[in-house]
Every structure is written in C-alpha cells, then in structure tokens.
Amino acid sequence: MKHYIKKAFSILTGMFALIGLSTTLLTVVMLIAISQFQGEVSSGSGLSAPDIDDSIIEIELDGVIQSRSMDPRSQFFNEVFGGPRGYQLSDLRKMLRRAAEDIRVRGVFVNMRNPVASFSTMQELRRSFIEFRKSEKPLYVNLYAGDTLTYFLASAGEVINLAPLGGLMIPGPAFQLTYFGPALEKLGVEMEVFQAGKYKSAMEPFVRSEPSEPSLEMYRSMESSLRQSLIKAIGESRGKPETDVGNWLRVSSFTSAQALSMGAVDMMDYETALLDKLKEVTKTDKLVKWRPYLVHSADLDEPRIADGDDKVGYVEASGEIRMSFQRGEENVIAPKPLIKELRWLAKQEDVKAIVFRVNSPGGSALASDLIWEEVRKLNEVKPVVVSMGQVAASGGYYIAAPASKIFAEAQTITGSIGVIGASLVGKDVPDKYGVHFHVVTQSERAKYLNFTESASAEDKRIIGESIDDVYQTFLDRVAQGRAKTKEQIHELAQGRVYTGQEALELGLVDHLGGRREAFRMAKELGQLNPEKLYPVMQYQPEPRSFFDCLGAPERMMECLSELEGGIQSMLIADPVAKQVLKPMNRLQKLLQDDEVLMYWPGQVRWSHGSDAL
C-alpha cells in the first residue's frame, strides 16, 4: 500500500511540476510578446511606408478614443482578447495637423463606426477637424448612426453622410441623479451629513429620495449652459440658426430621411457613395490609412522643432483624490506619486513651463491640500498651466487653483468649492437584525464612534467646526490663486458646480480650450516660441523589465497580478447593478480614506443607454 501511495504522490508531484513549468513558460511567452508589442507600438516598425502622393487619408473610428496614454499591457490584451481598440487623441490630432500642411494630402475621409469618448475628448478632436478644414482641403464624415456626441463630432465635417437606416438620437445633455435614502432606511441605516455650502449635494443621494431645491437650481443651470454650448457649436458648423438646432435637440429622435430634410446631414447613402464623391472632388483614388501616415510623416515636423534643449513638462492627474491607492489601481490620484512627479519636474532645468492636466471629481480634503501645496511651490519656480478635462470639481478644482492660468472646455464640470463629511448610523440595526454594538472608550466622542448611535449635539458642533475650518481654508486657497478676495470666492462657492463656460464668466477659469491651447500658453509664459515644437517631458517610473518579472518570485507575482488586472478590466458589469453600485463603491472608498471630503458625484448623460463620461 505504501508503494502505491508513494507512486501516486510521485505522479501528482510530476503533474504539478508540469503545470508550474507550463505556467512559467506561458508567462515568459506573454511577457516577451508584450515587450515586442510595446517596441512595435513605439517605433511603428509594423507599419510599411505608404505612398502618400495625391492621397486621401482614411480615419476609421471604432473604439475608445483615449486622452491618456494607454499602457502597452492593456493594448496587448485588447489585441489578443478582442477588447476595445484604443485610439490616442494626441496621435489623431498630430496626424490631422500634419495632413493639413502636407501638400501630398488631398483630403480626409472619417468613417465613424462607433467612437467612444468623453465630451472634452470629442471637443478636442472636433477642434482639430475645424483646424484641418482651414487648409481648404475637404473633410468628409460617414455616420452609420448618430448620438449626441458622435453627431457633435461629425458636425465639424464639410459633408456628412448618414446611413439610410441609421438615424439620429440627439437629446443633448441630461443629468441622471440616483437617490438611495429610502433604501437605506429599509436597511435600518441612515447617513449623518455635515457640510459647508448649501449647494454641496454630494451626500444627497444617500439621505433623500429626490434632489433639493438648491441642487435642482444648480443642475438646471448647468444643463442649460451645456445645451447652449452644444447648440452654438453645431449651429456654427452646420450654418443653421440656433433656434433650429435647439429644436433638433428637443425633438431628439430622427430617421435618416428626416435628418437629411432638416439639414442635419448632407447625404443619406452608404459609405461607398460618400467615398466616391470625395474621390471625385479630390481627383484621386488613392487611400492611405491614418496610422501608417502618422508613423511615416514625422519629417513634416522638423522645420517647426525648436533649437536648443528647452522643454515643456506635462503631468496628469485623473481620478478620485485619495490618500492611498493599491498598485495597479487606475483613476486614483494619490499625493505620494503625484508629488514625486511635480518635484521631479521642478528639478529639470531644461523644463521651462508645465501643463497640468486635471480630470477629477475631487475626494479627500487632506490629499487635495497636500497636492495643492506642491503645485503652488512648482508654480513659483516655473509657470504651471492647468488644462481641465471632463470634470475638475471640488478637490479637482482645489489642486488646480494655484496655477498661473487655467483652461477648461465649455462643457467641463468644475467649481464645487465646498466641503462635506458623513458617517453611517445603523440606529435600527439592533432591532431589525439583532446585532448590537458596544464601544469601550474613555473618549467623549463615544456616541459618534458607535455605529448604532447618532452623534450628540456636542459631536455635531465639533465636527461642524472642523468642516467649516476646511471650507475656510478652501476659500483662502482659491482666493490666493484667483487673485480675488475670500468674500468674492464665498459668493461663488458654497459647493455650487459650474460648467466651464459659467466658470469663465465668473473668473474661476481664465480661458476656454483644450491641451493644445494650454501648451501654447505654457510656452508663452515660459518665454518660449509658441509656434515651435518642443520636447514634452513627463515623469516615467523605472520600467519593469522582462528580467525583473522573472528574477524573483515576488516580482513574478506582481507582474502576473498586473497582467490579470488587464484581463479583468475587459469584463463589463450588469448595467443596472453598475448604476447602483458605482456611487456606493466610491463613497465607501472615500470615507475609508478621509471623513472630510471635497467631492462632486454627479454624472452627465449625453446619449440614451451610454455610461456617463
């Protein structure tokens, strides 16, 4: 019997050894593949040189348009496992700029299958469409079907074709507000909220069943501002009165024939018909894909490249602001790594100015203040120009405030200068579930520390003073950066959220524009030639090499965990569950990090059935 057990054990050991060897070999192969893929992406070696003479540049948009650089691992897994194909906004804009100047290029054909991007990203790409058309070269756009954002982008084209059965669904902006107050009551739980600012509505979803009057006033104002900026942009591009475009958005849904008859599009046909028309106008049949063109047209930039060693720095802060984060976690702004980037840029003598991209709804007050101080110190050494993304509200505005200049898009969500604190109280939990909590402490805050007891009057007074102290500091920080009095900022603050257009009119931002405009301003403030191209310096952590992953078991597991995260990121949650769980998960993480928050939780919905961006 011992012999059989020993033999069975040997067989099992061998099997596990083979499995381990197979896993290791698979990991090695995948890491090599990722390294090779990264090299090809950076060098463009996988793309043959096209014949550009007398050509039409073809752009097919079918996937996510990234405003941030995509991690090569994510690109690799998207390619291998059929994830969404990524487009870099900077690549598209660079390609369009070159094509406008390139005498070999006759025109551009944009085939919009299913582009996905935030409004601010669409706005920047749309601006590039408009800039390209100043070259007097045709830019034709093919739409299969249009929602608000895709039609907004397409409207910058000279000629728009819409598929016969495609149609338009263009309702414009809408704020979707979800409230959990009654649901929490049924669980025997309530939220105790402490806030500074009557418009600070971040916790309303957890204590109410509908928005308060100040919240409704704020959201109606923002919706109107967003709608008007959309109407104005489309009207200017299509040569239509704003009243007509406003009616389009109100009615919202149109067949392709209706869209054609009212002038929203120029053709109702198939892709090939539009392409044939462009070929006829440009007198050429030659099509060149935009990616090979981008890779093999770099020589066009040489005359504009500045002499010398001067550079412009770039740093990006995207996500919720928290004191801590887990390795591999995306869309989190933590002080430690961001401050490291800011200090690194301060030490680079060749960097004459910095563009600071902020895309954040806020978060921890403490973390925001730590970042604010580093941005302030950096701005004293070198000019910092902030470029706001889709949202730079509350803590996101806080960290932008000390910059020399602030740019926002008309549709950026910003402001929300206010502070909020909250804690969950399970008063009915003992009766409902038979679960009792007892706190043993000498602290006078015993009630506040007990999950099942409400804060005492003294607790509320102390917490209220703490919240107000943070709010007063927030006002001081903004007043200092905006060169206004504290009283002036308080009138604009109180937690109220604004669009970029509203913020410009109130002096909370300096200019409307995207990254390109921010870089131009940074060059001017850094006493560089704004017409020249300068290298962009961005902090890069030490790269993890193939041998780093294989050198020790703990590094191997670290690499594997990051690769696993890349696969998991492609999973899509149930849409209903996602809408309910997203705000709850955010709240949980933020309250674990800091009980005093600078945060705006809102969502802008631009299209039916799409996630808010």
List keywords for this structure.
single chain; 613 residues; alpha/beta; 2-enoyl-CoA Hydratase, Chain A, domain 1; 3 domains; eight-stranded mixed sheet; seven-stranded parallel sheet; 23 helices; Pept_S49_SppA; Pept_S49_pIV; ATP-dependent peptidase activity; Protease-4; transmembrane helix
CATH topology of the largest domain: 2-enoyl-CoA Hydratase, Chain A, domain 1
Q: What is the CA-based Rg, rounded?
A: 27 Å
Second CATH tier, the architecture of the largest domain: Alpha-Beta Complex
Number of strands: 26
Q: Could you tell me the mean pLDDT?
A: 84
Termini gap: 66 Å
Spans with pLDDT under 50 lasting ≥5 residues? Answer: 40-45, 543-580, 609-613
Range of strand content: 15-25%
The level 1 CATH classification of the largest domain is Alpha Beta
Largest sheet: 8 strands, mixed
**What would the principal axes of the Cα set say about the shape?**
globular
What is the number of domains? 3
- Let me know the CATH homologous superfamily of the largest domain: 2-enoyl-CoA Hydratase, Chain A, domain 1
| Structure classification | alpha/beta
Oligomer: single chain
Helix count from the secondary structure assignment: 23
Helix content: 40-55%
